[in-house]
Amino acid sequence: MAQFDLTRINCQYLDRHLTFPLLEFLCGKEIYNQQELLEYILETVNKTNMIDYTMDTRKRLNLSQEMPEELVQRKAEVLATLKQLQNEVAPIMKATDILKNGESMKDSKTFVNALQKDYNFKVEHLESAYKLAKYLYECGNYQESTSYLYFCLIVMSPNDKNYLNVLWGKLAAEILTLNWNTALEDLTRLRDYIDSANFSTIQALQQRTWLIHWSVLVFFNHAKGRDLIIEMFLYKPLYLNAIQTMCPHIMRYLATAVVINRTRRNALKDLIKVIQQESYTYRDPITEFLECLYVNFDFEGARLKLHECQTVILNDFFIVACLNEFVEDARLMIFETFCRIHQCITISMLADKLNMKPNEAECWIVNLIRNARLNAKIDSKLGHVVMGTQPLSPYQQLVEKIDSLSMRSEHLAGLIERKSKQKNQESIDSWKYY
Amino acid sequence: MSRFFANGSDSESESSEEEVLVQNYNKASNFQFSDDEEEVKRVVRSTKEKRYENLTDIIKTIRNHKKIKDIANTLSSFEDLTRAYTKALPVISKEENGITPRFYIRCLAELEDFINEVWEDRDGRKNLSKNNTKSLGTLRQKVRKYIKDFEEEMARFREAPDQESDVEEVEAQDSDAERADADSDDGISAPVVTKPADQPKAVKVVAAKVQADDDDSDDSIDWDPDTESETESSEDENQYQNMRERFLKRATEKEDKDDDKRKDKRKEQKHKIRKRAEDDEDGEWETVVKGNVVEKPKMFEKDAEIDIPLVLAKLIEIMSARGKKRTDRRLQIDLLFELRDIAELHQLGVPISVKIHFNIISAIYDYNQKISEPMKLEHWALLLEVMQSMMKILLVNPDINMNESVAEEQEEYNAAPYFIRGCPLAAVERLDDEFTKLLKECDPHSNDYVARLKDEVNVVKTIELVVQYFERAGSNNERCRIYLRKIEHLYYKFDPEVLKRKRGEQPATAATTTTAPSSVEVMDKLCKFIYAKDDTDRIRTRAILAHIYHHAMHDNWFQARDLVLMSHLQDNIDAADPSTRILYNRMMANLGLCAFRQENIKDAHHCLVDLMVTGKPKELLAQGLLPQRQHERSAEQEKIEKQRQMPFHMHINLELLECVYLVSAMLLEIPYIAAHEFDARRRMISKTFYQQLRSSERQSLVGPPESMREHVVAAAKAMRCGNWQACANFIVNKKMNTKVWDLFYESDRVREMLVKFIKEESLRTYLFTYSNVYTSISIPSLAQMYELPLPKVHSIISKMIINEELMASLDDPTETVVMHRSEPSRLQALAMQFVDKVTNLVDVNEKVFDMKQGNFFQRGNMGNRDRGYNRNQNNQGGNWGGQRRDNRNQRNRNQRGHHKQQQQQQQQQQQQVQTIEEE
Fold it and tell me: Where is the sequence biased in composition, kind Basic and acidic residues (chain B) (predicted)?
């Protein structure tokens, strides 16, 4: 399954700390050599200040039980630096705690004013708070880091050179503390900032690419994420372009999100266009599944791909939680398409196409019919499902066409009215000058 | 063409274009005289002068050879000397009463001494090269034999070796030169070829030729050379006294020493002057002018110590004559060659040589005064050679900076970081342009063209040299320019390696350290550099176009498509210059062909439709002018258009293009016609294809197809009945293969693809056309009929059902398609029509409103086309020519508005009146 594994590519666009969950996840999957993976983790961890994690990894690698000299030394160093930074920031934090309870917490400006007036607040303090937050983050103490970052965000002006870094840091920390609600907020804030800031085209593209990768983590874990991911990746041209030019592999997550989102079926059409367009740069079982189903109407192919999809999803950290949903919805999609085309289907064939046993399939169809999502009857003597197709009668066609007409005319009339009003207004205005 | 000149802060390369563009850049003082004076100075030489000059020249070279003990060359020079002397003998016997000129004797004496000296020096002799030793022996023998004839004079000379000889020499040389007239003709017809690596011998040869050429131009002005020598002495001495006075002032400084000789000489000169005066009255001879050479019969004084400043001064002197009306351009070239050889002979260093090379190049460019005409072939060969040798020198010597930004005063020839003014870039660009002109001059079907085309390799090589030079020392801008030149020689060439690599028959790109990079990789590298570094829009645009072209050529359809879409070229190409637009058209044509090969019929059609719909792809691709109709173009315009034409070897086959277009139009249009047979609002996909179809329908008797178009039309007719076999036979047969399909690189694959598409589209057409006859059709029998695999048929039918093109559904147990087509009743049909018309009305109303609003043109997809990396995925297909099609729809809709029923027209008018009232 290694050929469909995206961890290698995804990690390029993630923060070092964000990669650990991915790597740990892979450890449990036996796609790669466990030993090598752990060594890799160790190497990565060594670049951070998370000494305990390093030790843990070493243990798992069955290296010597004792802590190497240099690690001990580093631990001491890290603690010392931490202490020092904390001391620098302490007075300000104390002040903040006091102010938090008061009135001045309402908006950042009054807050900063109060700080400056009463507590002798200086820019250097902000700097050290920022440093401390970063240091804490590097040590793996995300929870505390977020609080300092929060402080920074309030106090810092958006023009500050560190502002972007703070935003990124906050997002990373929130993701790592699994605080999905705040993470989503931070994500939106960061996105707005990137869209409004004056980056060069290439920089903006790079920032967006990173943001896209990080946001995948948030979207698949947040309740609202499934709508938002479609909104952002598919319908924001800037982000769609970023995906197309920089990271077409994100199509996998977008496709998954569309499949498991029953309410957004109309997005499917747009998605398939994009998939087709990018099919030469990226394809995996999930996009191929959609292609089979909606471009080639190759149900046999779709069935096989669905089978592959399951393994792919099972091994992908981002979407592993959606496995069951995905399979269910994919089946439904196959079945729906089937029904639109056919007027009579044998149950055994259907079961075959859906990777189910005939009995299960019958049961499944019965449920669908009962929930009134399907206008069909089962002929159990022959083992057929007969669709209650209704050819579009000319009368209906007529009504449909006329429907839109009245709408449009009304709209037009409204426009004209508004225009004439405006004109009257203008003419009155212009008269005033004479 | 004019770009070469437009760049020019560089006066060196800025040459006389159409007429006279006097660039009196390096004003040498001795060129500041009036025309009158020139007239006089021009004629100063007699046969004797010429002969003598010839002799002295050779003597001088002998002396030089002696200095460096180059005996082999001394020998050959000696042989030349004796020959020249024999030629001069009649003059000598006549003018000097048979007394051998003293300088000649002196030379012989010196030579003898020299040989004896070398011969005696046994140690030295051993060190001589084999060649030299051999020559020494021969020379010794020859000289001994030869001087026997002059023993008396030699003895006299040895008694009193005097210094006066210098004077005589100059005199003698003058008079001698005249005599060369008689045989000067042969000298001219021989091509002027000198190798840069020539031995000093060449100097003499060139010198002789300069003489010859000079004389020739004399002749062309004056009279037949043969008659001259007979008439020259019979002239009246007393005529034109004042001319004589003038001449006296002008002649060489020491002339007054020998009165006797001068008299004769003067006689001749006067004669010439008179003749000249007569000719000048006619005026028609004025255009051919003798250059400055007459006053400088030889490059330098014979004893002058030739060093860098002297050569430079000389160079400036020669070059300052350029662009002047009276300058003999060929002579200039020859002079420069001579100068180069002299410089090399005296080992003045590489920079001087480069400088002279460069000046030779500009002199050659100057030679042709009309910009629209190609240069002569001999000059072309010369030019290539000089250019290459110059670039090689530049490449070998990294401490030479040749740059157009170096000012004249900053030039540095003596010390290590040399600075030379000049622009190899402009020179090579001009070279390339000249090459194109040469090609266009040839008949493309003749062997001439092939022979010319062989030089392409050399041109590319030269460009490659310049590329190397600029990669070492050029600015980004210069590199972009030279890269573009390289690209323009690369982009239209097909490299089968690329396709082989793509299919994995050869190691992929990563492992190609040993093999040369494929042309696509080279293109990538060059273009990416230009994209990153270029700051003029034009170079980048052209690079993109060439890049796309190249990709399309090698079937990299997706890359090519993405480049087109991302560059947004189609939006603003109309603002570009004509040659860029031509390139754009060529690119589109090729992209269409590529899409066709890659089975993207729709895209192929979209790419080609803009080219074909005008009916003059030939003109759009600059592959030939349309015949004149009622003097549409002025002569001037035609000339300009001719200049834009592509050379033949870069042409895109028009028949192939048209065939691909028609076939893809057929594949799209026929099923569409079938599907919308009774649709009131049907529109055409391809107008051109429709025309073909209709013109064939109009014929009362349709014979078997002959031309490509007839084949396609016949195929289309077969397809309309769903007869795929006949259709495929019309498209793919022997005739069409030779005419069209074999032109593709992998023609078999294309043919297979075509047959596959014909089957599919025929099936669709069949279903559309005959579905109302059936209540159910068996899928297996369809598959059998169309020889398609069952799943494919299934998939095609499914697609039609989903898209609601076919009112039917599948019945799985019986494997049939069940039709649901319900025929509307009469009333219903009428109602539907009515609804259609009302819809039209609403459309028109909306349009009227939009027009009033003024935002009519911002409708549809125009709004969301912003720059950047935005790829307009929503209308991928329509992107190619979407705008045009949009407009056409609207027009159609508009027209239909006029065909409305009376009642509705009234209704509409009412509504419009209402609208106006409301407003």
Answer: 243-262
Q: Residue A140 has what DSSP assignment?
A: T
Tell whether B803 lies on the interface with A, counting CB pairs under 8 A.
no
- Residue B182 has a pLDDT of 40
Contact A273 B874 (CB under 8 A): yes
Q: Which of B174, B207, B75 is nearest to B131 (CA)?
A: B75
User: How much is the ipTM here?
Assistant: 0.76
Q: A375 contacts in B (CB within 8 Å)?
A: none
Number of structural domains in chain A: 1
- Report DSSP letters for B747-761, one per residue: HHHHHHHHHHHHHHH
Using a CB-CB distance cutoff of 8 angstroms, which residues of chain A are in contact with residue B835? 398, 401-402, 405
CB contact under 8 A, A341 and B798: yes
Mutation target to probe the A interface, by most A beta carbons within 10 A, among B798, B822, B914 is B798
Q: Search chain B and give the residue with CA nearest A273.
A: B873
Interface touch A296/B795, C-beta < 8 Å: yes
| DSSP code of residue A293 | I
Does residue B802 sit at the A interface (CB-CB below 8 Å)? yes
pLDDT given for residue B901 in this prediction: 39
Give the DSSP letter of residue B590.
H
Task: Kindly write down the DSSP assignment for every residue of A80-115, as one continuous string.
Answer: HHHHHHHHHHHHHHHHHHHHHHSGGGSSHHHHHHHH
Cα–Cα dist B796/B500, whole Å: 33
Q: Let me know if residue A302 belongs to a domain.
A: no
Partner-chain contact A415 B871, CB within 8 Å: no
Selecting from B849, B873, B919 the residue whose C-beta is nearest the C-beta of A412 gives B849
Sole residue written with tokens 């192929």: B604
Give the Å distances, CA to CA, from B108 to A20, A362, B94: 98, 123, 22
Q: Which domain holds residue A369?
A: 342-387
Residue A357 sits in a domain whose CATH number is: 1.10.10.10
Partner A contacted by B163 (CB < 8 A)? no
With beta carbons less than 8 A apart as the criterion, state whether A386 and B885 touch: no
Quick one: pLDDT at residue B233? 43
pTM above threshold 0.80:
no
What pLDDT does residue B540 have? 86
Mean pLDDT per 10-residue interval, chain B, length 919 residues: 43 41 40 42 62 81 79 81 80 70 78 79 72 79 78 75 48 45 42 42 44 44 43 45 48 47 52 49 44 47 66 76 68 78 74 80 76 76 84 80 72 72 81 84 83 86 86 81 87 81 61 63 86 83 90 88 84 84 91 90 88 83 74 75 83 89 90 76 77 84 84 89 89 85 86 91 90 86 90 88 82 83 74 84 83 51 35 38 37 39 46 46
A416 to B801: CB separation less than 8 angstroms, yes or no: no
Strand partners, A346: A384
- A225 lies in some domain: no
Q: Which residues of A touch B842 (CB under 8 A)?
A: 405, 408-409, 412
Residues 829-858 of B with CB under 8 A from A: 829, 831-832, 835, 838-839, 842, 845-846, 849, 853
Tokens of A418: 């508004």
Q: How far is A241 from chain B (nearest CA, A)?
A: 6
Q: Phi first, then psi: what are they for B811, rounded to 5°? A: -115, 110
Q: What is the pLDDT of residues B780-825, one digit of tens each?
A: 999 998 899 988 898 898 888 888 788 888 887 788 888 876 666 7
Instruction: Specify if A352 maps to a domain.
Output: yes
Q: How far apart are the first and last CA of chain B?
A: 57
Task: Report chain B residues whose CB lies below 8 A from the CB of A273.
Answer: 873-874, 876
Q: Which fold has domain B653-819?
A: Arc Repressor Mutant, subunit A (1.10.10)
